[in-house]
Amino acid sequence: MLSAYISHPDCVKHEMGHMHPESPERIGAIHDMLLIKGLIDCMQTCEAPLATEQQLAQAHSIPYIHSIASMAPTEGYVRVDPDTMMNPYTYQAALHAAGAAVLATDLVIAGKASTAFCNVRPPGHHAEYDAAGGFCFFNNVAVGIRHALNVYGLARIALIDFDVHHGNGSEDIFHADERVLICSTFEDKIYPFSGNQPRGKNMVNVALPSRSGSEAFRAAVTEKWLPALETFKPEMIFISAGFDGHREDDMGNLGLVENDYAWVTQRIVEVARHHANGRIVSCLEGGYELSPLARAAAAHVKVLIGVDC
Ligand SMILES: [Zn+2]
């Protein structure tokens, strides 16, 4: 059974100005690298559907969903927060990005795909229950997780977030939902300046000091995440896959390299095989320097799909 590769052409039409780091080129950089490495050939390619309002409402308030829809401009840009803007294509792109997580969930739970990688933007993990921010509008993984919980009746889902930034949106959505365990690492004292004090008992937050490097990252995973995951026994795992902790990415200073992303993905795959029938859905979050983004994402996907290309 092949893993799924899910994206949509509209994800490239959303843009926030030429100087904005969350650029449309991110999608093509990852796609091209997966193609060059022969990884796409080992996957089934799927087009992301639009998430429905009912699906979005599993993770966001209806008034918030309507407010994002109503803010969409017909030309130019509308600023949603200091870092986050909508152009005329943003709303459709955001619906497809969340829809990708829903389709990935459907395919993996139905046994039609072993795992899935969603190469989509806008990203999602800073989007809260009723607030956009940090380049995010809808929390894609959160929509997928609630779909798995509420439509398929799964009881325990782990969300792994290795983006360099704390996933404040995911924490906001899941802090009172003990069906979900969030394990995250992030760089301390950078945007969004949260995470040091977890908002719920169902989260393992590890703030890593600037420049702490591969060793500290791997120690956090081994000593903090893995014991919690063993106890929790997730039935499915979602990944907020942000690659902005790479040492060549100026957005953070954790100093990670491709091998770290391959290594952490292998640890996640092992937990998934042990407890979750191997079920993993991974959604792109950050990663802004195109070359290291593409290399790190390819290292991640190669392990995720279990191919020795
Ligand atoms: Zn990030």
TrEMBL record:
User: What protein name applies here?
Assistant: Histone deacetylase-family protein
Query: Superkingdom of the source?
Result: Bacteria
Q: Which family does it belong to?
A: Belongs to the histone deacetylase family.
Start and end residues of each Histone deacetylase domain: 20-304
Q: Which Gene3D superfamilies match?
A: Histone deacetylase domain
Drop me one GO molecular function for this one. Answer: histone deacetylase activity
Question: InterPro entries this protein is in?
Answer: HDACs (IPR000286), His_deacetylse_dom (IPR023801), His_deacetylse_dom_sf (IPR037138), Ureohydrolase_dom_sf (IPR023696)
- Please give the organism: Caballeronia humi
A Pfam family cross-referenced in the UniProt record is Hist_deacetyl
Q: Output one GO BP term.
A: epigenetic regulation of gene expression
